[in-house]
Structures are given as C-alpha cells and as structure tokens.
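cache lookup: miss for this entity combination. No prior model stored, computing from scratch. Input as submitted by user K.M.:
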Amino acid sequence: MINAASPAMMDTVAQAAPAVAERTSPLLRVENLSREFGGVLAIQDLSFTLPKGRIVSIIGPNGAGKTTLFNLITGVYTPTYGRILFDGRDISGLPPFKLAARGMSRTFQNLQIFFNMSALENVMVGRHLHLDRGVLAALFRLPRLVRKDKEARELAAELMREVGLSKYIDAQASAMPYGALKRLEIARALAAEPKMLLLDEPAAGLNGTESREIDELIKRIAARGITVVLVEHDMKMVMGISDHILALNYGRKLAEGTPAEVSANPDVIAAYLGSMA
Amino acid sequence: MSSHRLAPLAVLAVVAALLPLALTNNFLLNIAIVAGFNAIVCVGLNLLIGFAGQISLGHAGFFGLGAYASAVLVSTYGWPPLAALLAGAVAVGLLAFAVAKPILRLKGHYLAMATLGIGIIISIVLKTETKITGGPDGMPVDSFAVLGFQAYGEKVWYWIVAGLLLVAVWAALNLIDSPAGRALRAVHGAEVAAETLGVDTAGYKVMVFVLSAVMASITGSLSAHYLGFITPSASDFFRSIELVTMVVFGGMASTFGAVVGAVVLTVLPQLLTAFQDYEAMVLGAILMLTMVFMPKGLVPTLSALIAPRRRV
Amino acid sequence: MKPAKFLAPSPQPLSREGRGALSGDAITMGADFLQFLVSGITVGAIYALAGLGFAIIYNASTVINFAQGEFIMIGGMSASTLTAAGVPLPLAILAGCAVAMLGGVLLAKFAIEKARNASVVTLIIITIGASIFLRGLAEVVWGKEFHQLASFSGDTPILLLGAAILPQSLWVVGVALVLILVIGFFFTRTLAGKAMLATSYNRLAAQLVGVNVRKVVLAAFALSAALGAVGGAVVTPITFSSSEMGIMLGLKGFTAAVLGGLGNGLGAVVGGLIVGIAEALSAGYLSSAYKDAVAFVIILLVLVFMPNGLFGKRGTERV
C-alpha cells in the first residue's frame, strides 16, 4: 500500500489509500437495481457506485429498503431487475457463499449468531474459506488441517481481543450479552478478510459508551483498507464517520454525497420529518 | 482443547474392552452386538440431525438397502461379502446424493415428511419385489468372510462391532472439530450467516446426508451377515423412528449421547419384557417423560448436572 | 379374523366379462373408474379428517402430532367394542370421542405444554411416545385382534352407472363433509374459532388482545381428537378396527396435511382427497402392492417443486 499524500486522494480516508489506478475503478457498482416482494417494489431502479477504502453509510427512514439492499448486495436475495458489479465483475444472482469468496462479508440487523457453538468457534467459521474444508481431511484429521486450525484459533482469539471481547474468548455464544454478540458478528465477518464489510445497524440497542466504541472500531477497520458499508439509525455516528452517504426512501435514491451535502438536502430533511410526523 | 477432545472415545474404548467380562453368555453378547450396530448408525445420524440440524425419518431405508444389497449379491449371486458391502454402500451413497439436493432445501416438518416418504417407499419396494428379496418373509444371508477369515459367532462379531464403533466415534469427533464440522454446526445455528461467511450450506447438507446414509448402509450389510437373515422390517418406518429416537433420547449434538441413546434403547425393551402386556405402554411413557423433562436428551442433561458449562 | 384390505376396491367390481359382452368395453371401463373413484373418495374423506386434525393442532401449537392416528383408532375401537357390549351406536361414538378428547387434552397439558420450548425433533419424539403409549393401552384394554362394527344402514350396495357403492361409504363421505363444514363454520364465524385462527397467525399478538393461548392449544387437541374419533367410528364398518389401525391412517393424514401446505385446513382436506383417489386409482390400474407408496411418491414430487405444499404460505426468512 502506498501512503503518499496527493491532491487526488484528499477526499479519501487518507491512511489506506490504494494505488490510483485501482482506486478509480469502483469496488461496487449497482445498476438499475429493483426487487419486488408480492407486487411491492422494495428497491426501485437504484443505481450508485462505491469506491474502495471508504466508510459509506446508507440512510433512510424505516422501510426505505436499506436492509433489502444489503440482502441484495450480499446475495441473500436475488434482484428482480438490474445488475450488481463487485470488483468489476457481475455478481447478480450469485449465492452468498460465492460472494464471500470474492471478498464480501457482513453482519446482521437481527443477530445471526451460531448459538450452538463457542464464541471462538463462531469467529473460526468466519475463517472457513481460508481452511481445509474437505470432509475426508476432517474425518482422518490430517496434520495440515490440524495446523491450519490451530492458526485459525489463534487468529480468532486475536480478532476477539481486537473488537473488545477478550473476556469472552472461552465463552459459549449462548452465554454472551447482546452488545458483545454485536461485536462477535463483526469479529466473525473480519475473520474472512473481506474487501468489503457490510454492517447492518451495528450500534442498534447499544448504549452511548458502547456505541462510541463501535464507532472507533469501524474507523480502525476502514484504516486497514476494508471498505465499510454501514446501515445505521444513529445519525450522530453516521455523520461523524462517513465519507459518503447514500440516502434512500421508498426504495429509491433520495440523495448522495458527503455528510454535509446530504444533511443539507431538502428531500432528505423532508423524508425524515415526514417519517417522524 | 484437544487433550479432552478424545476423552469420550477413551472411556468408550475401556468400556468396550471390559464389557465381555460381564457378558457371560451369547444372549447378552447378542444384545451388545445389536446395540453396537445401532450405535454406529446413530453416530452417523447424529451428524445429520444433531449437528447439522436436518431431520431424517427415513434412515432405516438406507440401512435396509445396505442389508439387502449384501443379502442378494452374496446369497443369490455369490459375490464376495466385502464387494457386496461396498457395492451397497456406493449405491446407497448415490441414491442419497440424488435425493439430497432437492430434499434438503426443505425445512422442519416438510423435510421430516420427505425423508419419511423415501424410507417408506424403499421399505415397500423391498417388501413387494418378492422375486429378488423374498418379500415380507425375508431371505437368508450367508456369513461374512473376507480373505479366508470367516466372521462367525457372537465373540468374533462383538470385537468387529466394537472396533467399528470406535472408528466411527473417532471419525465423528474428528469431523465435528474441523472446518467442515463447524460449517455443519453453523448450518444448524444460523444458515444465512454461514452462507455469507463462505459456507456452501447446500453442499455440506448433501455431504452429511450421504455420509450418514452410507454409514447406515454399511451397518445394514454387516448386521444382515451377523443375523444370517433379513426381513423388510429392518427398513420400515418404525425402525427409522427408533433410530431417530435413540439419537434424540441420548442427546442431539453429542456423539457420546448417540451411543448412549442407542445402547439404552436397545437394552430397555429387553428389560421391559418383564412388563409383558404393558411393555409398549411403559416404553411410550418412558420416551415421553424423558423428552418432556430432558428435552436436550440424556447425556447433555446429565453432563450439565455434573460439570456445568462444559460440553461433551 | 383377517381384515379386509383397507378400502382397496375389488379388482373386478361386477362381472366384468358379462357386462362387457352386453354393453361394450367403454362402459365397463367407465364403471371400473367410477368404482375406484368412489373408493378413493371414501378413503380420501378419512385422510382429509386426519389431515385436518394435523392442521388444527399445527396451527395452534406448531406441533406435528404423530398420535393423530391413535385418536382415529380410539374412535374405531370404542365404537366397535361398545356396540358389541350392547351400547347404542350413537352413544358408543360419543364415548369414543370423549375418550379420545381426554387423551388429546392430557397429551397437550402434560407433555406438549411442558416441552413448549423444545426442538421440533424433540416434540416429534414426544408425540411418537404418546402414540406408542396409546397403542399399548389399546392392546391392554381391547386386545390385539380385529373388531367388527355393523354398517350403519345395511350392506346392500347401491348401483350407480355400473359401480357398486356401499351405503357405509356414503356415511363416511357424508359425515366427513358435515364435520369439515362445521369446522369451517367454527373457525370463520365463532369467536372461539377466530381466537384460534388468530393464534395461528400471530401467537404473541393474539395473547396481547386477550386470547388465552394455552386454552387454544388444549382446544385444538380436543377438537382434533374428536374429529379423528368420529372418523375412526364411521370407517370401522368397512375396515374393521384394531389397535394398529391408526398407524397408516396417521401417516396418510400427515401426508395430506403437508401436501395441502401445513396449517392450511382446506389444503389438508384437498390433500386427503388427492391422496385417497390417487391410491385407489393406482391400486385399481397399476398394482395394489404399491398402493401405499403412491401417497409418498406424490408428496415427494410436490415438495420438490413446491417446498411449502400446494397451498402453503411462502415465508421469507428475515435477517
């Protein structure tokens, strides 16, 4: 990675700026995306691009289609119309596990923890793509598998410490409190070493202190060169850490730009006031 | 971690080695052998039901197909027993593979229904194709022989079954504590999350279904040779239910639990014969009460009592 | 005594050759078909009742009750043994209903309610335990042999376009139809029924508006048990009753309920009729040995293409 300051990258989160040629091609390109559920369009004709190595937030009132968009990008839903390009390749319709192999990772609005496992094992599942996944190697416990598993265990513990879960390294996931589980999902997603990390309301249900910690964590993740896409209701957090914001309403793009631009946009203000009324 | 990973296996090995001292006659040895066969099937079935969270109410069908493959190929066509066993296992593996993909997309009760249907269809075919299988009356099976060694008598079979059970438990414990095993458990815990972390959930479900079916088939082949006679009831609905009950009774997602469940529910009916006419009532009541008061099954519940916070 | 094969149509309804010579093969074939269809609808009506029982319990509690077939058995056995002991038929049927309902309520109260949070498989094993228990109890009380029950209005077949219809078949279909209509009325027009329906849509919301969800579950088990028991009583003159009669009936009822889409009562009824008719036709035209396999082949084919049955709700997992 190059860490030279040039005028062209003043608008990026300087630290992790990749080479210029790479940076100019967007990491994610969404073209005319639509998704229908029983006659209702949850996402309508949505187009936007996301550059590499930034923190991008998707905002909008409840029901604006934020989580649906996440599910479309990560392959949980398939688009009704339109295309999604990730790293220059068309990924529309690919199953989530193939997208994970291309460098996409996510957390969930409603926790999707493996409660039947230990916290450490949860994170180790995140490491899946980097390990010996075959069944025969597993049944006979071949030495290479054992060695890589040991490394994965250490890395998982390291990640747990990094997200602030040191005291839960030996815990069962089912014995952990809500706030810790939110971080566990982040550690698990990071274990996959993604290019892009999608966080669906990482601060929801957390108190002020916890949410500031998440804030710091997201900045650290972005500093490692991972593109972070965030859905969040905490506007203070969104405006504070985002480089770029995409505002949705009724499944359509309402506005796009820097936090200052978006927060001054009359349509955005109207949508939020409207949703409160 | 890995120091007590194989602890259950060591316990099992010691029990298996010492048990013949207590089993002083062929009647008792026979019960132990049947319990061992059931345990092997249940260890496989538990990978599917307990760890991957996918129910099957039809695995006796695969057990029966393995048994009949050996019976027909050896007794009617004169194949060497080992070749017949392997042919049966491959055939069952292919069948399981073919049905697994569409069926394992189903969830919960729909999956229960589909697997139940497959088991019943297999059992009806075995019952009806009288020319090949001998129909409801069953057919005799020659004894198992390989490279001049002939498996004969309860003592020999006891050691064969005990050895195979230990291998099955060892392999299952290995699998559970591996990337593939964690992937299976992740499918059970939160399937969508597993997908987004790169786990080919459909692929692993198919794999574990095929693995458990093949284990049932091989066990079916061997038990047919041991018993020397086979009837379609080895594959019927009740037998499938019996196998699932053993897994759930012993404790889902506990390999040791599957073994304990198989042993207890094999021995229990022998003890209950003392109740004569009331046997079925008592068995039904025991099943209900155990599951109501220990919904997680025998081994997980008891081990939680003995050593809280540790997993078996 | 040996039981008549379960509602399988006799392969040659009347003297086939004789009529063929008189009126041509086309009519004979039509008569055969009609005969098979009548058998199919008769047995399908019983499957429909069993399937409806599954659906009602599933709706109230998301439990699949594998003891549903045993309710049918209790109805059949009570009716046959009590009438043999001199009890008038209507009273015997009512008594069978009462016994089955008691069994259902006890099962709901002392097993299902206590294991509320157990996994799907655990709940299945509990109801299987209940069915083994009830079968064992029936063997102790009534023995293992088959019991007869006289047809409600004689055994003189009614001839219709060359097909012979047993009066008891009309009883079976008629009673099933009445029960289905009553159940339909109950769920759409009465407050108690609406409360039960509300519980199936959203348990928590129903609870919040004052529905006693525990009572709903008890009522569902009682209702399903009663349906099963009446079905068992009306079908016994054709099939005889035994402690084992509930096994296949229960499985076919489950098939009917899944075929229609779990939790859809009307779907279960349609599913039952489809299974019954398909069985009768394949027994008539293909092979009576594979009759019992037909239901399961149908359900597998349907589930491959429609994973939630014919009329089931399609759910999207929310993440």
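stored under new cache key. The CA atoms of residues 47 and 208 of chain B lie 7 Å apart.
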